[in-house]
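Example record for the data management plan.
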Amino acid sequence: MLRPHTARTLGLVLAALLCFAASPPERQRGLSWVAGRTEVTARDFEPLVDLGVNWIVQTPFGWQQGLDSPEVRSATGDGIWWGESDAGLERTARLARERGIHTLLKPHLWVRGAETGVWRGDIAMRSDEDWRRWFTSYERFILHYAELAERVGIEALAVGTELHTAVVERPADWRRLIARARGVYSGRLTYSANWYREFSEVSFWDDLDWIGIQAYFPLAAGERPTVEELIEGWRPHLAQIEELHDRVGKPVVFTEIGYRSTADAAIEPWRWPRRGRGGQVEAVDLEVQSRCYEAFFRAVWPRPWLAGAYFWKWYPSGGPGAGDPDFTPQGKPALEVLRRAFRGEPPAPGL
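Corresponding structural encoding:
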């Protein structure tokens, strides 16, 4: 007779094997595309085709002077990287479509001071009048990209990303914004909620097509966890997500998920790599990143409510390489885990 833990583990592995063998064709097998300084070419998409990728995220930015500033400034042309410009977004989406790859357009806000810990989720106005000004400005920002997405034929759009306080305090404003976006855009809409509390506190999921989650859930308390420990770490988070899915009745998309190449990657997955003076970086651990990917594809990917996931991040130029703790799987063992899962192949022996 199998012990309960062993039986549970075998059940997860069996579910994963079935999923690898027959992933539904509509599942979003995604990567977060890093905007480059220079134009991309059709050749830049060949590695994605090899991986079995069928969606990418593109991320243009709006800029805000402070957490209580009621003005959102769009950046669409000169002075930004080519890949974040309107022309860059459009060309990237068209080249992707030529290779059978769809696009989720996911605008972000960058608040002054973000590099020192200021977070967009804390954006909050000092008065109702300032909130009205902020939403007028933010609506202009989002509708610009809704119109671009409609014109270019981009298949999905996020109306916001990790704006927790604004979401909780002003739900009626969000519903109006979503209605206006639908007035100019005919594709799918989502919102990209932070993993910490926000995704369960959004009150307007019923107005959207997908529940979007930035899925940087902590999975371990210590360094170098095993795959089995990581799978167990997913358990409480999956229960929360499933409860939300059952209540709202909408598919879930992990609009962003990723892991650094470090021993502590599963403790605080959202944290950027530490870099010291002279560009010195923290120690690299490629195995932990690979285990985190493997645990995701075994514990989460088979869930019927999951419509897809986008891994952070993919550099069309090739990335910083295996010696850097960056999130990218490029040139690292995690890439093979991703390839097997996205192509519907069984896990590698011993994993």
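Summary line stored alongside the record: Confidence is low (pLDDT under 50) at residues 1-25.
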